[in-house]
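Slide 14.
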Amino acid sequence: MAKRESTLPNMVITLVIITAVAGGSLGLIYQLTKTPIEMSAEERQQAAIQLVVPEFDNDPAEEMYELTSDEGFILKVFPAKKDGELVGAAIETRSHMGFSGDIIIMVGLTPDGTVIDYQVLDHRETPGLGTKMDDWFKPSDKDGSQEGRLLDPLFGISAGDEGGDSRSVIGKNPGDTDMLVEQDGGAIDAITAATITSRAFLHAIEVAYRTYLDRDDAASGATDSGDWE
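Slide 15: predicted structure.
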């Protein structure tokens, strides 16, 4: 039997078949994983809302609205209410200034903009350095944990030098406190060896504060502000 020679048309057909099979497989995998991924993201979002605002009895996700920052970021605002009164807002905010890309956090603000708490939602920062922002900007005794600080002595930082208040953003209002790292003339201690990450984190806080309070001021000065909160 004569050997069948490989021709350009045969090669093209083979390539098309392989591409179609690979594309179909990727599409199937995407469809199978899309829903679980979306559900996981929603669960993380809901958990973050619970952690960063005071006790509430409404459904913040149901009342969510969006604001656009001066930078063009679309911020999701989840108002938290108790007995119909606004007690705070969980705001999904971000910064493009991270060392390895976007930093996305959920920050809780009181109606006057004071930081209640925060949770980091997504980032690509350096493990062991930038990742310290998960708890670095909270009071050092918030949960009694010193996890992620084992390397501090290598940088000349002792337990007595931690300065929980000077690096914490909790309970501080960006309107009264310069939310910048000390190297830039601000009031917040940067993460050791991760100043770029620290700048990005504080920028995200500032973006949330400024965008939220600007909306608040605009609504207060409007003839008919409506029921936006």
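Speaker note: Confidence is low (pLDDT under 50) at residues 142-164, 221-229.
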